[in-house]
Design goal:
Layout: E1 3-4, H1 10-14, E2 18-24, H2 29-44, E3 50-55, H3 60-65, E4 73-78, E5 81-87, H4 93-104
Parallel strand pairs: 1-3, 2-3
Antiparallel strand pairs: 2-4, 4-5
């Protein structure tokens, strides 16, 4: 089941394991349209990936700290380090699933660790 995340809960939730962060906004039509499919992916991968949902409107500072520039945004993390981002209004569930597959397949981290002040 997806877990709603805030600045206070984010560090502990991404610290260990494989995570898919779904950054969405209540006014973002593509975000809302993809939600059911993204939640189905979490079920499909049966506990191998934790789905976190971040409401961008309610967590602007965290979005800034994570350098989220647009919605929808999907970010994969392994043990607290960003592996990949999928962002675009043309994002499909296939793009998101491919990012999960790369995460689970051991893709090298491309991003930076979670900012220190969030740890």
């Amino acid at each position: 089941m997806a877990i709603d995340v805030t600045e206070a809960t984010f560090p502990a939730l991404v610290e260990k394991g494989n995570v898919l962060l779904d950054v969405w906004g209540p006014q973002c039509a593509p975000c809302i349209a993809l939600m059911p499919a993204v939640e189905a992916l979490e079920k499909k991968y049966g506990g191998r990936v934790i789905l976190l949902k971040l409401n961008a409107s309610e967590n602007r500072k965290l979005c800034r700290d994570l350098r989220i520039a647009g919605l929808p945004a999907y970010v994969t993390f392994r043990d607290g380090v960003e592996v990949e981002r999928v962002t675009s209004t043309h994002t499909s569930v296939d793009h998101i699933e491919a990012a999960i597959e790369r995460l689970l397949g051991g893709a090298p981290a491309k991003g930076l660790p979670v900012p220190e002040h969030l740890q």
